[in-house]
Amino acid sequence: MEDRKIRIGIYPGSFDPITLGHLDIIERSSRLFDILIVGVLVNAAKKPLFLAEERVKMIQSVTSHIDNVRVCSFGGLLVDFAKQEHAEFIVRGLRAVTDFEYELQMAQMNRTMCPGIDTIFLTTDLRYAYLSSSVVKEVASYGGNIDRFIPVSLVPEVMSRCNPISADKKGSQEDKKNEQDRTDHQ
Ligand code: COA
């Protein structure tokens, strides 16, 4: 019997930072492939909040429960990265029709450049249809609660980068509360 070829997919994006919407796409698409590579774009044009290495680490920490997921950064053309990784599939999430035109153009461009690589679209879970990394950063910059938008373990890091004053205040409030708890228990 012929050996089955390993199926490799790439989920590319800026992930600045990763949101629960991205994580949902990663969890669902990891079931479609033997290996899913989350490709973090090093994009000089976008002026990211987090360095590529920081974004890679954040994604690794929240995907450690998924055995077949690998996370790495890439620069240059996505199809070149896909070829280098022997991936035949690109995964993209569609949140609304507004995403469609841009995504279709990108998929067709990529397929023209590299006919061996197909793009697969997953519809974003309705719970996250309105989410984007920029919206999360905006809410955080005004000290708003972002617990429902990104993995909880990443909240302190994102808050302190977007709104250091509010994160400091929260930290000292928590310190005070812990101090009070300790006094109460004495
Ligand atoms: N949940 C939450 N947010 C989502 C989402 C989901 N499921 N799907 C998309 N988004 C949001 C992101 O948060 C991001 O928000 P932001 O603009 O506020 O940061 C936005 O949608 C789009 O981001 P993303 O999915 O990260 O894509 P991108 O546009 O930053 O990058 C690449 C897309 C990496 C695929 C593309 O730029 C690329 O391939 N670049 C390499 C160069 C190349 O090959 N170019 C030619 C392509 S034809």
What does this protein look like?
This protein is an alpha/beta fold. It has two domains: 1-130, HUPs (Rossmann fold, 3-Layer(aba) Sandwich); 132-186, no CATH class. Helices cover 45% and strands 17% of the residues. It has helices at residues 20-29, 52-62, 78-84, 97-113, 133-141, 155-162, 164-185, and strands at residues 8-13, 35-41, 69-74, 89-94, 118-123. Helix 1 (20-29) links the parallel strand 1 and strand 2 (35-41). It starts with 7 loop residues before the first strand and ends with a helix. 27% of the residues are buried. The site of coenzyme A (COA) has 23 residues, from strand 1, helix 1, helix 4 and helix 5. Coenzyme A is lined by residues 12-16, 19, 21-22, 25, 41, 77-78, 93, 95, 106, 109-110, 124, 128, 131-134.
What would you say about this model in short?
The chain is an alpha/beta fold and 186 residues long. The protein is built from seven helices and five strands, in the order E-H-E-H-E-H-E-H-E-H-H-H.
Main CATH class of the largest domain? Alpha Beta
Low-confidence stretches: none
Number of E strands: 5
CATH topology of the largest domain: Rossmann fold
User: What do the pLDDT scores average to?
Assistant: 91
Spatial gap, N to C terminus: 71 Å
Q: Provide the list of bound ligands, each named once.
A: coenzyme A
Oligomer: single chain
By CATH, the architecture of the largest domain is named: 3-Layer(aba) Sandwich
Q: What is the N-to-C order of secondary-structure elements (H for helix, E for strand)?
A: EHEHEHEHEHHH
- Main beta-sheet strand count, sense and barrel state: 5 strands, parallel
- CATH H-level homologous superfamily name of the largest domain: HUPs
Q: What is the radius of gyration?
A: 19 Å
Continuous helix count: 7
Helix fraction, binned, reads: 40-55%
| Count of separate structural domains | 2
